[in-house]
Amino acid sequence: MERRKMAQVATYVAVALAAFLFWQSTRSPAPTPPPSPGASVFPRAESAVLPDPARFFAPHLLAAPLPTSSFFQNFALNDGDQPEYIHPYLVKSAAAGLKVCYPKSVHSPSFHAQAFVADLTVSSPSDAAAAAGAGWRHIIAGFDDLSVTLDFSRSLRAFLVRGSPFVTVSTMFARCPVDISIASVHAFLEAAPRDASLTRWRLRMNSGQTFLLYASAPIRLSMSSITQLAAPGFLGVIRVAFLPHAAMEAVLDRYSGRYPTAGVAAVDRPFSVDYAWCTQGSGDLLMLAHPLHLRLLSKDSRVRVLEDFRYRSIDGDLVGVVGDAWALRTDPVFPTWHSTRGISEDGVPEIVAALRKDVDDLASSRITTTSSYFYGKAVARAARLALIAEEVGCPDVIPAVHRFLNATVTPWLDGSFEGNGFLYDPKWGGLVTRQGMMDTGADFGFGIYNDHHYHLGYFVYAIAVLAKIDPAWGREYMPQACSMVADFMTLSRGAGASYTRLRTFDLWKLHSWAGGLTEFGDGRNQESTSEAVNAYYSAALLGLSYGDKPLVSTAATLTALEMLAAQTWWHIREGDAIYEDDFTGNNRLVGVVWANKRDSGLWFAPPEWKECRLGIQLLPIVPISEALFPDAGFVKELVSWTAPALARDGVGDGWKGFVYALEGVYDKESALAKTRALASHDDGNTLTNLLWWLHSRGSPGADAAAAAGIAGAAAVDAAGGTAHGMLLDMLAAEESLSSA
């Protein structure tokens, strides 16, 4: 009993110490200032496979790095005519017209999607005629974190702001009246003004839908055909909104006068995202919040939530929020090098035995792949061994890991690696690989900006560990390390940077997208949330190695948000209401989340391969993984759902290992027995790592906060006042910063 109590105290002290070290890293001066985040140190190269951004982006935007995984990426690819989901509407630009759809759900047990139908098309007939002969393409006139401005014809500009219940179109930059056409694939049953000013109209269709149209000046709509309305000589702003329910009409009327033209999301405070919109017009701003917004919306926000004002969405109900500035706050998550719960004393000998064997194998297991993804997994796998060695008190094996990492990582940083390497693409502004710049399929599309945070996250993890155990090496290769992080984590905007702002992270959805410069009818996509979490977690560790306060703070914030988004949209609990019942009932995990679709299959596996679906949402197993799966009840649901798939012929031991790892959350002894019987492991995993994970599992009833690296106050009291004081001081500092 006494021994168990001492182990518990040691665990709490370790947790408190990790929290204190995180607090210290974000509050104390950085001992070594990192290079400018805008700097690229890798050789420049001209890609043979990248599209030309000048076809769609306005000339003044081409001087700065451009987004490659954004919510409007389809507008800049091929003909630019595939839809994008600008919540709550699917929007498509084609033939000098803007097509707007309030989508209906299409679903089955294996997928959930939204179908595009051109409910309304706004255009100028004269512009459309001229465009047909001149090959007109729309122009992306501006973009930011929360919006894109699209000149979809010579006279019409759309302010496409995410979460606006209105689609706003302006003729103002035309400087003269413009003839307007409003068409539909449906028949108009009614197109009538709702007041004598001719600035408010009701458009009712045979589809059962009703749209409301608002204009800044009188507009005279007439029916030129059953599917087309015409308005001559209009100059001003038009706003259209779908009317989900008659009771919402008064709300739309009230807030129709103020419209957003742009928006910014600030990530300059730990565990905070602050939205602010640029607006025009009169009155208050009405926007829509998705479920994660509502969960994080701070009481500090001077906004009003309209609970009964709701739009349907594939991401869950979108709820009305009145106010032009939001404050989002998430609970702190503290990235640590080692386990947050501590390793059980009786498990240490077994881990050490496996560790010695796995480290010995490094000398004889040369990395043969030249793939940036698989190579990154291999070096991160080795780096895990050094940190586990620190934790179990086995320092004598660390020099061998050090030699291995030095020999395998350095060539990718100094350009001497044969067969591949990182280069800088000045066209879009980012890293590509030698293989990827010649072949779109090489390195899983890294050369066309697919999966950047996945690949680089593994490398950054290995670099962070090597810099920790060899600070002199870390200082020598700091420019390359910081450049790799900057590729997917730059915060700055404008021509002074070498990399686009937060290449993969979506500050409105609050998670990453892995899809790059490939046109998809359902928009961007992401398969593995755990690899996304690993990227930001690894960046935080690099910040700890270099004493870089802003990097640790930003990376920890993105880590926390990515995990919450994964738990919101990828993890499906029994009875969840976000998705349709047939899809929810058949799935405990989404395979691929698209902007406009949810798939149960993976890029590499059908829906029936549930062990792969579980594994791809867990790998790599690192200390932050327990915060990604903090709910033991859901984990048990997930493992029970997955387990029958393990009886299928051909299931690899590597995938089984991930299932057993999660089983260990609630049944450690069973998981240990199964893990010991495995003959092989995933190429990013080892027996050492699995044993480390299983022997550091606490009881299923442990405080959920411990899984995020924070011990509950009552628990810390058991360990003594010093640890308690560290945590209270840290949380008080965060609160003070948030209210400043």
UniProtKB/TrEMBL annotation:
<dbReference type="GO" id="GO:0052861">
    <property type="term" value="F:endo-1,3(4)-beta-glucanase activity"/>
</dbReference>
<comment type="similarity">
    <text>Belongs to the glycosyl hydrolase 81 family.</text>
</comment>
<feature type="domain" description="Glycosyl hydrolase family 81 C-terminal">
    <location>
        <begin position="343"/>
        <end position="694"/>
    </location>
</feature>
<dbReference type="InterPro" id="IPR040451">
    <property type="entry name" value="GH81_N"/>
</dbReference>
<dbReference type="GO" id="GO:0071555">
    <property type="term" value="P:cell wall organization"/>
</dbReference>
<keyword id="KW-0624">Polysaccharide degradation</keyword>
<keyword id="KW-0961">Cell wall biogenesis/degradation</keyword>
<dbReference type="InterPro" id="IPR005200">
    <property type="entry name" value="Endo-beta-glucanase"/>
</dbReference>
<dbReference type="Pfam" id="PF03639">
    <property type="entry name" value="Glyco_hydro_81"/>
</dbReference>
<feature type="domain" description="Glycosyl hydrolase family 81 N-terminal">
    <location>
        <begin position="63"/>
        <end position="333"/>
    </location>
</feature>
<keyword id="KW-0119">Carbohydrate metabolism</keyword>
<keyword id="KW-0326">Glycosidase</keyword>
<dbReference type="InterPro" id="IPR040720">
    <property type="entry name" value="GH81_C"/>
</dbReference>
<protein>
    <recommendedName>
        <fullName>glucan endo-1,3-beta-D-glucosidase</fullName>
        <ecNumber>3.2.1.39</ecNumber>
    </recommendedName>
</protein>
<dbReference type="Pfam" id="PF17652">
    <property type="entry name" value="Glyco_hydro81C"/>
</dbReference>
<dbReference type="GO" id="GO:0000272">
    <property type="term" value="P:polysaccharide catabolic process"/>
</dbReference>
<dbReference type="GO" id="GO:0042973">
    <property type="term" value="F:glucan endo-1,3-beta-D-glucosidase activity"/>
</dbReference>
<keyword id="KW-0378">Hydrolase</keyword>
